[in-house]
# Entry
Amino acid sequence: MKRLFISDLHLQAERPEITRALRYFLSHIAPSSDELYLLGDIFEAWIGDDFADPVLKEIQPYFEALSRTGTSIFLMHGNRDFLLGKKSARKLSAELLPEQIKIELPKRGTALLMHGDELCIDDSAYQAFRNQVRNPNWQQGFLAKSIDERLAIARQIRDKSQQQNSNKEDYIMDVNVGFCEELLTKEECQILIHGHTHRPSIHTNINGNDSLTRVVLGDWSSSGYYLLSHKKEFTLSKFEPPEDFT
# Structure
């Protein structure tokens, strides 16, 4: 079983270089895989399935083509696109996953997959905000607003988040490593795969425990990151489309 994992693309019309990197990935790297997992923040902001996102329209044919090759596609919510529903997931030929799932990686053990923002427990202000926007009543009220109103709110939330994060210590915005170890022990998993923090790396020692591995997926720009799990390979790679790719 050949599996690929990506996250934190933050696709947006204002950043066409990210969409270009994704189109290259889907057409030149992913087709040989059995499964592709998208672990959240695929879009910079998702204000509801009734919004005609131009980026979704552009990438939809590439996901459809990948699915036709036999690759199964799985999509998980992030903190930016948690309102993405089954309707839009189907346009990406993807199955929408819960916030946490376990999968078996042959010869490596059980892996726990998640976006990763729930691991940043030292950021109490963010966790309070997360609880607020994940509340069904808040989401219902937000989706009842007009598209223009929702776009304005999304911009306000993003601007406020950027301002607040500029005043926070780095460790507060990173995962709590002790919490990661506790979670893996509780869930009886050996590997944690997540995104969110934009600090790509494979950590083979979690809080002093050599039997646990934590993989942090990378955020995308004109280049992209992906984790490959296949036979003996377990690698985090960075790529950039060639100049002649259009």
Summary: Helices lie at 16-29, 54-68, 86-91, 124-133, 136-143, 147-165, 170-173, 177-187. The CA atoms of residues 45 and 80 lie 5 Å apart.
